[in-house]
Amino acid sequence: MLVNSANDVNGSVTKLFQLAHIVHGSAVILNNARQTSQALPLLDPFSVADISSRGMISQSMIDLIITHEAFKLFRTTDNILSIAEIYFRTMHSCLPFISKEVFYGRVGGIWTQPKGDFALLVICMHTLPQTFINGITEAVKSPVYALAKSMLSLIESANILTLEIVQSRLLVCLYEMGHAIQPAAFLSVSIAARGGVTLGIHKSCAQQTLSNHKNWQNYEEEKRVWWAIFILHTYINLLAGSCHFVTEDPSVNDQLPVDDELWQMNIVSDQPSLSLLTPTNIRVGPFARAVQVTHILRRVLTHVLKVTADPIFNADEAQQLDDTLKAFAALLPEQLSQSSTRFCGALGICTSQRWGIAALYLGYLQDISSTA
């Protein structure tokens, strides 16, 4: 077990805001893992509020605090690599919004070049494989989950916002969704959405990915983070039976994620990016297909929860949605057989929506008959 004890991590959460080290000039925050294991000085007599009001929380301090907590949790780079291997083998195959190439390229310097946002990303990644006997009660009390939430609050209170922080929020949201921790999951994805808008990553879907774009890997990652927010936010609204979206509906011309395998291998396609309205007969990757089906899901939610007074219009729209779902439903089983389980999410969303639309359509026909 990577954590020495629950008391150790819980104790670090309690003292999180007290652990700090102010770096001046060319002083190095953290030279190696051995230095990290040494006790850090306490900032007495200042309280957390005092530190904030005096402007003493710097990014260097935040980097040190979170990296120190990550070291206490993982101890070695090998342990981090083990966690990453589990993540990229499981959750990543369903919702690929973290670049493997970028992630593994940064792991080697996690202790020598500490960055709080990256250390936070690793900690949040570690929350996902946890399982509990007592369900939600034990999941809420998880020391790793408590640590992740505390450090998210810490780094955000220091007015720091990066793509890694938004990704960390999404990982925590996935943990909360998996353990039915509500309304925390809704709040997490909503904060991630606001953070994404602040960073401007929502605009990445509206632009063509150029094959000669020198930062196309990062550009594609931003696009995938935004689409992941879109998927999770829509799904949480489905569970809540609502359509209160904090993000705008995507444009039909917004660009889908590129093929997952090409992205992972860092291969730039010479083909133009495909839009949200790409026909079902054109091959797209599993994540892109999940985006398309989720877009239909959002339309279904709006259709169901914001019914107009015109039964004929309602019936026509229901028929149109059902026809679209039929096209996906006919295609996805074939793609599923070719790509193992990677299309399971899209197929599940599509099938569940068809049952709902079918029931509504019958109701609309009855309304039309009664008014005829």
UniProtKB/TrEMBL annotation:
Residues 85-307 form the Xylanolytic transcriptional activator regulatory domain. Keywords: Metal-binding, Nucleus, Transcription, Transcription regulation. GO terms for molecular function: DNA binding; DNA-binding transcription factor activity, RNA polymerase II-specific; zinc ion binding. GO terms for cellular component: nucleus. It is found in: Nucleus. GO terms for biological process: DNA-templated transcription. This is Xylanolytic transcriptional activator regulatory domain-containing protein. It comes from Scytalidium lignicola.
